[in-house]
Each structure stands twice: as structure tokens, then as C-alpha cells.
Amino acid sequence: MKYPETENIKIKTFFDACNEMIQGRFILSDIKISKILKAIANSEVLYNLFAEVLSDFKFKEEFENAKTSSKINGGYFLVPENEEKIIALVFCILLEVDNQKMNLQTFVNDYFYSPEGYNISYSNFALSVLVPFKNAVLEILGCNEDGTLLEEVEEEAEEEEIEEEPNTREKLLFANLTMSLNELLSVIMRSKINEEEKEELRIIIEAMYEAIELEHLTIINALTIPLEHMIGKNKQVKFYYNDFKECLVQFYYS
Known about the structure:
Blueprint: H1 5-23, H2 29-42, H3 44-54, H4 59-66, E1 67-68, E2 76-77, H5 83-98, H6 104-111, H7 118-141, H8 150-159, H9 168-190, H10 195-213, H11 217-231, H12 235-249
Antiparallel strand pairs: 1-2
Helix pairs in contact: 1-2, 1-7, 2-3, 2-5, 5-7, 6-7, 7-11, 9-10, 9-12, 10-11, 11-12
């Protein structure tokens, strides 16, 4: 069943607002959050989806579960694997910020801190929280960011006899991510970083390899936070880390 054209426009407005917040910086984030919440309220499809996932959702409990201790940077925040819980949790966080019950800057600094500055910390937050939120809504609605249902696109593709291996691009991106991680680990092992920190970095990177094997971007994004914190401003290692981060960002561009 196709959504009415008016709904497609409203759904697109929602994803445009999400992308604006993901790709932007902290400045005017309160306005960007308001746009997201307004888009949800204006769309019958989105409103019904959010009402459904929020039914019986325990925000405080899920928020505590998402907070993961880490001796490296004090803590980091890992959204649930369940898509409905991701949507409900992030919506509640945005609502708390909009209602001025939560300070977004404090939240970002507490769980997504980067020694490179607040804008990088905000980028960590966007990749770890906002991107999974947007992707979960896309997955449950079964549509593209313009509100077009995926089954409609599939039908058009069949008519045009387009034959393309599914997930080929994603497989290549994971391969590139692995190669950049190999380079990063190699330069860390050759660097002047002390042995204890090298071992901690190796453990984080080994966990990343496992997450890549599972193709689990949420875990990879969460692990970049302690990794980035430990690397700090080491110029020799930072160059290779930035290359790895660039490979990771490519997953979020079509």
C-alpha cells in the first residue's frame, strides 16, 4: 500500500530534519530538535509509529541500560539493538532536551567526549545516536527518505531489469573499514605510545574487528569514542585515525 503523496512529503520533512541535525553542529540544535518533533506530530504515519513504540516503554530504565561504563573516558552511550527501542529512547531524549529537562551539551560531553573539541564530540553523538534513530525509522516504515515505499522501488527496478548484487556497496565499505583499521593498528604498534595504552587500544580495535565481522555499525560507532579519546592529539596516529573515521562516515552517504 502506497502512502498518500501528502504523507510522503511529511515523511520527507522528518528525514530532512534528521539529516540537518546529523550533518550540522551543536549550534541551533534546539531548533533542529523542534523541527524533528514537529514533523512527527504533523505526520499521521509517523505519529502512529511513535505512539506504538512508546507504548509501555520505560525511558529511565532503558536510558540507564544504554549507559556503559568505560575506564577510558568515564562512560559512553550505546543505543539498544531493537529498532523500536532505539526509536523510543532517542525520541524521549529529544523530548527531554526540548522540554529543557536535559542539557544536550552536558549529555554529549558526558558520553561522546573527544579531545578534538565539542564539534567532534557532537559528531560522535550524531553517528552513535541520531543515525541509528533515523535508520530504525526507515527500516520499520520500509521506505526511502522521500517517503517512497521500498517495495515500490523494487517493482520499478524489476520493470527496468536492473540486476545489482544486494549490499555490494556496504560489503565494500566494510572491507575499506577493515583495511583502514589494519593501518591504524599497525601505526599504533609502531608508535611511541606506552605499552599499557597500546594494549588498551589493541583491545578496542579487536572489538571493532568483531563488530565489523557482524556488520554492526552501532557498536563500531560506540567504540570510536574511547578509541578517539585514547589517541588524543598524537599526530602520527591521528592521521590514520582520521582516515578510518572517513571510511566510517561513508556508510551514511548514499
